[in-house]
Amino acid sequence: METRGPVLHIVVVGFHHKKGCQVEFSYPPLKPAEGHDSQSLPEEWKYLPFLALPDGAHNYQEDTVFFHLPPRCGDRTTVYGVSCYRQIEAKALKVRQADITRETVQKSVCVLSQLPLYGLLQAKLQLITHAYFEEKDFSQISILKELYDHMNSSLGNTSLEGSQVYLGLSPRDLVLHFRHKVLILFKLILLEKKVLFYISPVNRLVGALMTVLSLFPGMIEHGLTDCSHYRPRKSISEDAGLQENTPHLDDSVSTADTSDTTLGMGKGGRKVAGDHSLDTQKGSVPFSPSEKTCNGAQSSNSAVQRLKVPSRASPASSESDWETLDPSILEESNLKEGERENTASEQAENLLSAESLPITVQPQANTGHAVLVPGLISGLEEDQYGMPLAIFTKGYLCLPYMALQQHHLLSDVAVRGFVAGATNILFRQQKHLSDAIVEIEDAHVQIHDPELRKILNPTTADLRFADYLVKHVTENRDDVFLDGTGWEGDNEKTLSDFGTVFVAAWKNTHNYRVWNSNKHPALAEVNSSHPFQGQYSVSDVKLRLSHSVQNSERGKKIGNVMVSTSRNVVQTGKAVGQSVGGAFTSAKSAVSSWFSTFTQSTQNLGD
Hints:
Blueprint: E1 7-16, E2 20-27, H1 48-52, E3 62-69, E4 79-89, E5 104-113, H2 118-134, H3 142-155, H4 171-178, H5 181-190, E6 195-198, H6 202-214, H7 219-222, H8 236-240, H9 242-245, E7 252-255, E8 264-265, E9 271-272, H10 289-292, E10 305-308, H11 338-354, E11 359-362, E12 371-374, E13 381-382, E14 396-399, E15 417-422, H12 425-429, E16 436-439, E17 444-447, H13 450-456, H14 460-475, H15 495-498, H16 500-506, H17 510-516, H18 538-551, H19 553-576, H20 578-604
Parallel strand pairs: 6-15, 6-16, 14-15
Antiparallel strand pairs: 1-2, 1-5, 3-4, 4-5, 7-10, 8-9, 9-13, 11-12, 16-17
Helix pairs in contact: 2-3, 4-14, 14-18, 18-19, 19-20
């Protein structure tokens, strides 16, 4: 069945009292050979029921969740899921199936899309889910088929460049809640660390996580196409042997045919760096032969090259053999036309002599020769500044919501890092599996490694910026993204304002190497200095003191002692008597007045 638009499927997931979460309806069918009511799932999407019907959803009358699914059938593009959950009393149903034995019925209506239009899909889906439940007869599926047709017709020409991509996301609320810690969250992701967000209900979780990602230029629009490449676990024994067996799944991996000698330009001047439909993509885990093609079909293209799988399977280092290829490997190509061989050879020699950058095979289509490009290829659709950064590539996952059944991904050898959300406390308790845990309810960012805390420690210029940001969103009630914000260029003379240790750590990441290895002429027009650099002043001392008191353990202890001392003074004054108590009351008032002034200054100057 050909895809008619961005929406791939409409799915209904229900909770069965014996079988648990299961797919009850899909349109079009998830497996073309089976019916709409089939409960069979593609292997890549085996976690779909647990993502669409979140853990703990029964505690809420309704809720919404965003999630990501891995691609299917050789497609290398993330599938974006939005699910609206509701529950209804069984006695209110007009038609009650025999397997409904509990007092309440819990179901989710889910949209699987090729476009990351989370808020827009949510708004449409909530209305249909409400109407579907109002029927009080879940066998009435015509409304779901109409939803599929309507969404594909209305979203078919939707552009990812407009503000509708950010519908439902509130950066203002994020800054007001986390205040200066927003900068810490930004840096954690920029360093490609393992970051776990935690809160319940799930709509608050996915909303906060996706809003943080929206602070990265172009990330939601074009930066998540490679963010969900993981292998579902079939069994415990298979998972235990994954590290040992993965390199032996196939001793070679295909590079697809290539075409142009120049990179294509997408809409809005965006550079299309790679073809997402190719068998091989930067950052993807090697797949077994049966997974490289759809429905068992094998590629018959005689121009397919075979490249040796890297010997190092572990992605512990962000630099990987997958990232670059030795140009000599092209000598083993089975290209038949001598002219093409000579062209490729000349390109290799010219690039090696003129550039010190690594050489990468740039995926192109419809011809039989490989194109050598200096630098590293992100596989993302980039703008003239090289945005979005290639953060969520090469095994670094973005999972707005993780089901408990996906817990093994946190320690999977093929996953080098993640930004993930969870509502189950079991995720939060296993601190050794993440670098940082973000407790959204309390706006608390728990960083386990002392060295990482030092790297993330904000500079004076950072504190000025955070203070400005908090004041800006506090005074401006319009919930919009800040105008004039953008990526600042790299300049060695001003890196100290960004933090020398932090910049050194960022230079070791995959996303920096990809960005830095390619030229972005538009950056010449961007001021390369920190927007809040400048001479130190008394206000900087106050900002630093405020930050230390609010975030260090010692500062928190001092604050607690001050509160305790004030409380004891009050109690002592009452016990001594009126005359003596007056003196204590005066002293208490003086301490309280000072402390109130101090805490107020702390809140205003950069919490």
